[in-house]
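so i finally got all the pieces together for this one. its two components total, 470 residues if u count the protein bits. some of the lines might not be protein, just check the labels. i wanna see the whole assembly predicted at once instead of chain by chain like last time, that was a mess tbh
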Amino acid sequence: MKKTKWFWSYKIEETEKWLENMANEGYLPVSINRTLRQFHFQKAAPQKRVYSIDYKCSDKARMQQAGWDIAADSGKWTIFSTENANVYPARDRILKRLNVHMYMLLFVLIAFIPVFMIQSIFLLVFSGFGKIGTLTTVFGLLAVLYGAVGWLFIKFRKQEKKLLGIGKQVRTTGKHVRKIRPAWFYEPYQTKRWLQQMFEDGYELERASSIVFYFKERTSEAISYEILYENKVQTDYYSFYQQAGWHLCYTSSTSFMNSSIWAMPYEKGEEPPQITYNPDERKTIMKKNLRMTTFIFVLITLPVLFTFFTEVFVMQKPFFTKDLLGGMRVVNVMVILLWFLIYIRSIRGYVQEKRHMLHI
Amino acid sequence: MDKIVKKYNPMTETAFYILFSLTKPHHGYGIIKNIEQLTSGRLRLGSGTIYGTLTKMQKDGLIAVFSDEERKTVYEITGLGIVILQQEMARIREMHEHILSLGEEGHEKN
């Protein structure tokens, strides 16, 4: 029997469950047709089997040693099956593939949007501006495109979260205190100190977004907070820290250039838990964050500064003009000032934390 | 491979105890607890320290990762890892023998 399963490789856990159900009904997978997204099944006695799908499996012998049989092998994909197992393949290769596909697709879609807009403008010019029909079609299509990008990202992210083992964030009922703190990840030291201060005042961090912090009433005796930055998050990242007792309060929604906030309650009198007790490693963590801030600071301010200087100093334009460009200049100067402020605070936090380390 | 053998010769104490712990498959948290037990609490390692070392060792092929029934990550030593661990153990054994030859006094008797 053949059965088509679209997008089976993007929802591995679902596909594995589906294969288990098929085996329960007496259909065992024997091969995959990757082009047609089809699974071929053989009729057998209904049986309880566990399935595990692996991509670019590097050590099939190890899997077989752990009791797995190879049910099907196709290209880089392997379907393992067994009656019961206690060793499963890790998900890092499947996650990597999902990530590559996700960002490639999003990149193409996003790159396509400006091209699409230019074409629409041409279309409008040639067909006349007055036609409401054309205008609605163009904006309708644009809305669909943006919608598709958003929808795809949410879909992918859901699978990614599953593979990374990020569970749903716990939301306790009861009173919450909300605090707004934008750009907090550029100043991890100040943010940590602020969170500690909030704790002293009786509020424990429950969860956060990139701007808003939600505090619940304090339930622990004492708490440690850590803010981590990773260029690229590995598959075992979240599960490792969670198993080690750290509670995930926030993580950004991408697995690259990722910031996260971790908390661990402890009892009074104990030494406060830290992500590292090694000063060199602590410095590496601090430097990683400062490097990221520097990168974003340069990325944002450099083009703005460049346009500003060419306009005002090279082209000798007056700063204040009563047109769109004049308005833009004022906005640009404000952006630059804001970013200089953020960057100065970031460096100050770095210096303070370094000094703080010397005193312990 | 030679490069990796050199890189881990000698090993840091942290790296040694992590690799030593992984002669039996362990969860991340199990490694932390195991090292605390082995050194009677002398070596207290942060989760970031262990995670960083594990990531490096995985990249160098000294250890492999799997999942267990609950889909928790399990770390395990590889063939290359065993070779490197044995090399380190031979080095420490040599040091240990020299220490023993000095006797309990800790310096040579006249």
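Helices of chain A lie at 12-24, 60-65, 92-127, 132-164, 188-200, 237-243, 279-314, 324-359.
The mean pLDDT of chain A is 88.
anyway lmk what u think
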